[in-house]
UniProtKB/TrEMBL annotation, chains A, B, C, D:
The lineage of its organism: Bacteria, Pseudomonadati, Pseudomonadota, Betaproteobacteria, Burkholderiales. Its EC number is 1.2.1.3. The active site is at residue 264. InterPro entries: Ald_DH/histidinol_DH, Ald_DH_C, Ald_DH_CS_GLU, Ald_DH_N, Aldehyde_DH_dom, ALDH7A1-like. It is an enzyme of class 1 (oxidoreductase). This is aldehyde dehydrogenase (NAD(+)). PANTHER family: ALPHA-AMINOADIPIC SEMIALDEHYDE DEHYDROGENASE (PTHR43521). Homotetramer. It comes from Comamonas guangdongensis.
Length: 510, 510, 510, 510
């Protein structure tokens, strides 16, 4: 086992602004999935400390909401600059801590940069509507106002970007943020957060009192800390990324206190490949979206629904591509598949494979652990492809790993029905060069997912569109388009500037 | 007691398309609050019948979602025409059944007409966005697609308009509707619904198969019927209007099954009157919004927050106005205040008055039952004004009746804080001709309600703006602006029409 | 020659509200292209009368702009109802006066109905934006306000719908309209206008003073009348439909007085047919868009750009379809091709055919006059198809008649370049089921036209989208989407409600 | 006379990237209005060279339009960074070359930075709409595509910001730019442009071929150079800032070739001061907007329309404020009023004062030249206030200098009529704390200007709103809101993905 942490990683963390000694504790043992080495032992915040944290955010809200949005935009601009500057380092922390390959670690930081720029642009918009009134001497408008403290509870698989998605919008919209990173990825969260802290410091230096204490806070800890956020009536919006199970608990809790929530839960994302598909393009997309991040993206491809006429040809190409995948240390540039996050993930994968076989599936490749000699504490698996006779129970279940089910279809309607016949509704795609097929897939009778792509895989969304899914995925949206509206409260204002008091709907009274 | 129903009311119902014999049963005794006379005895649908109802809606959805939106718009246009034609009759049913004065009954039908026209306009919009992509040969768009069956559960106080608000949008958006009217106001619901049925008949005559069976259904019944809708995973959206207590039950239930909901719950609406107010205008607005619908609007004025310098002058005018209010049979054109919905409402009002007095309040006028001789089974009260020393517990509670609390303030910030210091967040207003006061009230640091008006009362919204409130009011919106989006599902589509497969965020893979 | 007009047509006109005796004069001889029969002789307004007309509109503007937009919406709703009621009659007037087949005459009235409903929906929108400010205690909003009198100058080929497109939006936006119909189609204009007059009468009956004198005026006359509108500084917006030559004169005139204009000028619309096209679908679309309205739509198909591999197959089908086209009296239900508007149009067509032959073209069918025996004063031609070796000068010229040039291509880029290599930029389309081809055609490097369709012809737009074209087509838009903004003036409002006076861009002054 | 240029200014220019030797010529003598010193002698581009410039832009367009918008956004981000870095230097060049005080020079650079950030945000938006279709199996969308080369012709008074406003949007929208700065301010233009060139160099280093030759060009020269741009059919959009006289020439020229244009022409901006105004706030706003940039902003305050009851009080305060204005070298931090741009401006001012006196005006202060001893070649004037008995001819004329006319009114309607009764329609404002007055001023019956502010002066707009004016100001908009749409072409796409060919408006054909 390596030292804790290695000298060079220590330097990386320091450049990221993470001072381990100050954070050291006994609660959280952070291990790299690469080799199981302990990267840090951190203190967790006790739940009892949460009221003070939440109070600080509540106080900060009173000030921050009054800071003009374009000035708030300057803060996210500075954050974006800091992230840009620290991109290589933060990317490396992510790779070490969650096992993503270098390119994906960097991509995640880039996504954080992108959303900062997007939020900067929003900072002079946040548009409501002016509306004509039915009454003389009246006008209507709607304004969007800051909402209140926002809690961002994230999962290990996007330990930096998802926080940035939420925080950049929340901050521009006038809200303080409290960030609860995954227990499995606190360092990545810290690295992203520290860049924000540096931005706040610069901002404060320029604008003085504008950035209040408590504007951005990070809380390391377990589910009790998360629950404190979920349950607090002071937290206006809970944005939580994780499992459907988690969402099924969080949603009702927040609803019962009339809070707002953004839930980004499970996905069980399919790709349709039709006879009109460019199979080589499809293969490249399948590989990236099924094995990227070792199949641990919420948008990872899990189901391949292929027309029976092209199934064999596609599988031939796919198996060949899988056979050449370089699995190993994600910090090595040539690696395409890194380790699973931990042993539990490995076992869950094994379990799903076993169930699938019981349900008639035939394992075409992969599934086995590899590199166990080299990394006895790292859980690397050869990405698996499983041919299924039908969409059985296990196929409808989200298994977080590089396990791809293959199903076949005859008529496009069947394929769409198959795409939709799972509880989750995050992402989906079709590979086809046939306009009618493509448009049918995108139509009201097509994919029921929040994202439906054409000739690209289900994962790897740009930040310009709204991200999120339907059904058990949660139904909410974050990132681009008008997702920012969820971070604000809308107020409808009718202004009478006449000397009369006409009533709406022509009512005469008195 | 009058006969069941009177001959002339029978004729009204018939003109509304309500065939009582077919509906007759023993479950629901519908009584007019005017005199307690039983208007009808109706059969309730057993909960066991709900799965078939819901299945019919689910089947209808499969067809209706494919009908082009502008064609769906034609249906709501026809509905609007039917409502316009039946306006006087439906208005009268409403007045008889829930005790609104004639003008308000008519206004409610007008509101239904208005939303049909608004929905007609939407039927050629339902705009998503086209979005530029960061990748060559790619484009992004978002489309809004039909959502699924919508349940509309309404309260007695807007027995027609709230259904129309929801159904007109739902139908144009491609969704079937199931309408569960209040047990206290099934006839008003039926009258509004029958107009839709006639529109569907005309529509079907013209377009044939376009309007499927099960597109619009009404279910008369109790809370078991409502629960069947709330709990069914086939109901995509539950739109429920009622008490905060109801919403606190419904919200988590719907959340636990990942459904969507629109909650329109309690309001505790305040008016600020500043020294810069036009007091005569304010008095007129107070009277309409505090005693209109006998104080039983969700947007009724309940709290008057007056600057101490003008408090006495305002009260003088107000008491004079209250003294001249004509209370009585709401069907008489001169009447301004009709009866409470039932005895329970009367008792709750008495109870609130008693509590308020215990908490230091001084009853300035009203509160007592009147016309008991004439209408022994009708509960008419003289609208009450209660001077309060502070915003005590009872003031923070919504009492559904003509009870107005008066509070005073010195600094505008206090008044705004007082406005906000209640659990509800529906509507609010300021009377002032002072720009700074007004804009402060509308600003991020101002009213925290979903609606904040200037120089008009908190009630009587136009349908062009979004209607709804924050906090315990539920947080959702219906009616105008972009409220229609809640009745649809959004899909983000990224289309690759190139021969390459570039990844977002510049990631290089393989 | 028939009497003037026939008894039954007299009845039609009367039902349309047109009292010929009151309009009779010697200036305008209105002839039916069906048989050259004179339908009416009408008095033209002398240019000297125009100042009074324009003054009336100017006065009306002062009042109409203050009528709330939803109330203005009620006027267009009533207009829509009147049009719906008179649909058959107005349709017949159009068919008689400009020679459209019955279905197209009715379609034009339907389009007028549609835009009234669309405008009705807008009447509660007309949304500007609320915008966040960079300064504390400030907010920004933009409002759209009525613009002023709008002149609508239309062409013979859409004698009713184009007026409705403009007038419905103009009226809802708060502007009076002055309608100058084509000298060739005053009766169709009058029929459409009279429906508006009836709506105004009903509106006035309900709202009293709301609909001012001068709100809607029609002026029959020649180019001097049109020029009076173009040149008047009181006419805020000139919306003119016609030839590029006309637009080249009108545009600079309006610009020189800083007026606004909407120009809808010539089109030279192409269809690309690729090897991936459904040829049968293409043939149907070609026939409708090339011969519908006898090729006299601004969106008529004039150029067919076919891949050489499918050219012969397409031509075979097309020639067969052309051979079966029923040419004749447009009032007969079975007729698909009616007459040209007049002899000049016929001569221009002959001239174009001759030039095309000189430039290497080969006439594949049609072009000759038919039915001359039956209708010696009616100019019916067999729709022509001309095979061209290249896009020569005459092909780049818009000939208003059923003359279709056929060109071939090898690479899609060539076809797109060919589509774009004409001075006009109105409409275009591609027939292909190949996604890449289709999206390329719609992309930034694709068609440069204002409208680019897929698998439908270039003509027959729905009113939900913006209608209009680039380059010599004028560059403006009318009808759907946000075209209404051109009928309003935008005002950007920055409101300071603080007690400070901070400057934008952080400037310190004094 | 100082040397050409002074050593320190040479250094400033060099830091701005301006290599004078390479630009040196005999055509343009650039003089500082501070002291008349010649700053540079530059070569002008002969008109004969313009076709090559325009061809280069045309070629660049073919490439640049295909670069994804978010990548184009990266270029404006880099430009913003370069401007931020060079802010002090560019600000100084502006101050020296056009005589603005330091704060205003810096503010102009800040405005350029702001628009770069705004454009960056747009680079992931550029939203068109998706629209529902009336036909089954059809959908509609509109896309905004790059337009073509954009010419930006600017005036001396905003020699940097106006170029940035236009270029940042044009570039993000996919268009090359050709910048023709004022002959009086080429160095400021160059300084701003050079920052863009540096950004392009960095961009090219990162993205290779993405930034084509000819993407951004600057042309120094006279009116022949400008005319070459105005007349070229290759220039898709001419954005010209300057006098109404210029616009009256440019508008028709561009219209005659069916080009697009943005005209920002003369303003004659008024402030209403009502009895409900905060007079001290008004005085501060008047001083900044009437004397800032020595009254040479297009948004400078030129007309003060004061209620007669507060006129004297306001004038007392105003004269006192004017008396303390520090006039002098704009590079000195304490200076508030710098020189006029040149002697011609001084003479025009004198001439206006003389005419105003002939028309009954009474000069209350200022108007005379000052500091002539110190700066014999600099034209400094004491800001003038002229009391006018009525809005005479000279008052309706825009005089570019610190000359403020004072008018009085009794009724608000008069004041609004007075505000509107000039040919120009750029900016306007009201000082009042009275809601009714304020809203009336902002209403459809209020100010007819493109900008109408409340409690801030007419000048100093933020970039978030649309900037521009009505009537002789040109009618166009640039900068914020949706002004970007003018830099793009809109295409309406109807896509049929069914196997049928239904026609719009329900037409049956064949």
């Amino acid at each position: 086992m390596t030292e804790l942490p290695s000298a060079d990683f220590s330097a990386v963390l320091q450049r990221c602004g993470i001072e381990l000694p100050a954070l050291r504790g006994t609660d959280l043992s952070v291990r790299s999935p690469i080799d199981g080495a302990e990267l840090a032992r951190l203190a967790a915040l006790p739940a009892a400390a949460m009221p003070a944290v939440i109070d600080a955010a509540t106080r900060a809200f009173k000030q921050w909401r009054l800071v003009p949005a374009p000035v708030r935009g300057e803060l996210v601009r500075l954050w974006g600059e800091e992230l840009r500057r620290a991109k290589a380092d933060i990317g490396q922390v992510i790779s070490r801590e969650v096992g993503k390959i270098v390119q994906e670690g960097l991509g995640e930081v880039q996504e954080a940069v992108d959303i900062c720029e997007f939020a900067l642009g929003l900072s002079r918009q946040l548009h409501g509507k002016t509306i004509v009134s039915e009454r003389p001497g009246h006008r209507i408008m709607e304004q969007y106002h800051p909402l209140g403290p926002v809690a961002v509870i994230t999962a290990f698989n996007f330990p930096g970007a998802v926080f940035a998605w939420n925080a950049a919008l929340a901050l521009v919209c006038g809200n303080p943020v409290i960030f609860k990173p995954s227990e499995k990825a606190p360092l990545s969260g810290l690295a992203t957060f520290k860049a924000l802290e540096r931005a706040i410091a610069q901002f404060t230096a320029r604008f003085g009192e504008h950035a209040p204490e408590g504007l951005a806070q990070i809380v390391l800890g377990g589910s009790d800390v998360a629950e404190a956020l979920v349950d607090s009536p002071q937290i206006a919006l809970v944005s939580a990324t994780g499992s459907t199970r988690m969402g099924r608990a969080v949603g009702p809790k927040v609803a019962s206190r009339f809070g707002k929530r953004i839930l980004e839960l499970g996905g069980n994302n399919a790709m349709l490949v039709t006879p009109a598909a460019d199979l080589d393009l499809a293969v490249r997309a399948i590989v990236f979206s099924a094995v990227g991040t070792a199949g641990q993206r919420c948008t990872s491809l899990r189901r391949l629904i292929v027309h029976r006429d092209v199934k064999q040809a596609l599988l031939d190409k796919l198996l060949k591509a899988y056979a050449s995948l370089r699995i190993g240390d994600p910090l090595q540039p040539a690696t395409l598949v890194g380790p699973l996050i931990d042993e539990a993930a490995f076992k869950a994968l094994q379990d799903s494979i076993a169930q699938a076989e019981q349900q008639g599936g035939k394992l075409l490749c992969g599934g086995q652990r590899v590199l166990a000699d080299q990394f006895p504490q790292g859980f690397y698996v050869a990405p698996a492809i499983m041919d299924m006779p039908a969409q059985t129970a296990i196929v409808k279940h989200e298994t977080f790993g590089p396990l791809l089910y293959v199903l076949s279809y005859e008529e496009l309607e069947q394929a769409i029905a198959c795409n939709n016949d799972v509880p989750q509704g995050l992402s989906s795609c079709i590979f086809s060069n046939d306009l009618r097929e493509v448009e049918s897939f995108l139509s009201a009778a097509g994919s029921d997912c929040g994202m439906a792509n054409v000739n690209i895989g289900p994962s790897g969304a740009e930040i310009g569109g709204a991200f999120g899914g339907e059904k058990e995925t949660g139904g909410d949206r974050e990132s681009g388009s008008d997702a920012w509206k969820q971070y604000m409260r809308r107020t409808t204002n009718t202004i009478n500037y006449s000397r009369e008091l006409p009533l709406a709907q022509g009512i005469q009274f008195g």
